[in-house]
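Sanity check

After download, print the first record. It should look like this:
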Amino acid sequence: MKSLIINKLTALFEQWANEELLQVEQLPASGSVRQYIRLISANKTAIGCFNDNYKENKAFIEFSRQLGKGKLAVPKIYADQLEENIYLQQDLGDESFFDRITSMERDEDAHVKLIQLYKRAINHLLDFQFTGQQVIDYSMAYPRAKFDKQSMLWDLNYFKHYFIKLAGVSFHEQDLEDDFRSLVSYLLSAETHYFMFRDFQSRNIMIQGEKLYFIDYQGGREGALQYDLASLLFDAKANLSTQQREELLNYYISELSKRMHFKLEDFKNYYYGYVLIRVMQAFGAYGYRGFFERKQHFLLSIPYALLNLKWLIENTHIPLKLTSLFSVFEQLICSPNLNQFNYKPKKGLTVLINSFSYKRSIPLDNSGNGGGFVFDCRFLPNPGRLKEYEDLSGNDDAVIQFLTSFQEVQQFMEQVEHIANSSIKNYVERKFSHLMISFGCTGGQHRSVFCANQLAKRLATNKDINLELRHVEMEIQQKI
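Expected structure tokens:
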């Protein structure tokens, strides 16, 4: 986050808190372009947000106040300066619903706790859907007041352009469009007069103490009951089993029957239709964030989503003939391009150490977390200027001996090690998943490689981390 924005958020915080700001913590990036920091004074804390989309900010702030008046579990808005695209909201801590469920062991006792936790979330969902419908002013909604034909076609074309095409799947354009429109017409025949949270999934539920809070509803609008339930139960990386999803679906239906009358068969048919469009929207997000923006952690959701898709086409019935769309689904499930992502990310904190050349660019953080450290090694003695080291690298003993002979190099590495260890200790305690540390020099061959190797060696005994080492420029040169 740029210093100018931090200065504005600091001023807003100090005006609200009536206390001097003592500490600022950059929070990990989310799937959106919004940027968050934690602001802390002697007695107060808040989350500061910057988002350059004025209308989206206004929707979130107004919805927060309206849902809060309805006694729904949303963060309080402490202060805002909409003209500056900044606001302060309640600090709900660092533990998300996703963190909680992924930390659970999948034994019998944990299964009971998992189901109980999801049932609590479902009870909140029903409150949002019914109470939200009474308190929300949809004139504040962004970008649409209703999950209507236009909204659905946006999602389906998002799936087409940012996932199907980028995955290299073949299809007939008009036939697929015809199937899209058939699906949309069918979904719009369901009742759509309820508040639709839009992104009701495990990363948008926070746990403070044992209380659940809900965030990221700025895209809320009027829609069908089934969509948000599909978002929760088919959240790809939550990786619920078929039995767990069915148990929770039946629980939702049982609780819903206490509030309204409906035909069970119709509800379930529409539900699986909305599961399909939600899964396609999620694939579009994985493609856009993963393939297009190169945020690696979004690609890791693809294997789970493909398993969900496979189960859907084998086990559910929607009263529609969608030949072209289901052909696309079959190709996605069998695609070797997508199956390459079928691996489990490591548990705990992964520390990625890079060396690189400033002649190219600083390595991108594909984890989606942002941040990390970049150390400029160009002030260190340069062995690349000496003929005897010209064709060697920081991996070679002669270069290692040359650089370790300088006191300033040793001091630099000691300082870097201290910074790295301090960050690692903090990130492990806060259950962060990724930290990137990069060393750059002119050619990416001598000093940066040496420093990356030295730090990796110094951190190698730390059992709390998964250590990865890359020499980016050397990898590029080997491919040329």
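If your output differs, re-run the checksum step. Summary of this record's structure: The mean pLDDT is 92.
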